[in-house]
Design a protein that fits this description.
Blueprint: H1 2-10, H2 12-61
Biased composition (Gly residues): 63-83
Transmembrane segments: 20-38
Protein name: Flp family type IVb pilin
Length: 83
């Protein structure tokens, strides 16, 4: 096995074939990587969409009811000097 690899590397045709096989392998890896990345980006988008929805629900769902009274007027007494 090792002898056949050495023979291939000594010949120009063998080196060219080896280079093309490496190039083909790199192209296959790039295609697989691109396809895998598309799935990952879809999942990441879904995660952030779900997170945004949950935050909106939490922010809007936390409103409460309450009662209060107030007149908005006040009275007071005091003495002072102004200049």
């Amino acid at each position: 096995m090792l002898r056949s690899i050495r023979t291939v590397l000594r010949e120009k045709k063998g080196v060219a074939a080896l280079e093309y096989s490496i190039l083909a392998g790199m192209i296959v890896l790039a295609i697989v990587g691109a396809l895998t990345t598309a799935d990952i980006s879809t999942n990441i988008t879904k995660i952030f969409t779900d997170l945004g929805t949950a935050l909106d629900t939490a922010a809007n769902g936390s409103t409460g009811t309450g009662t209060g009274t107030g007149t908005g007027t006040g009275t007071g007494t005091g003495t002072g000097t102004g200049g």
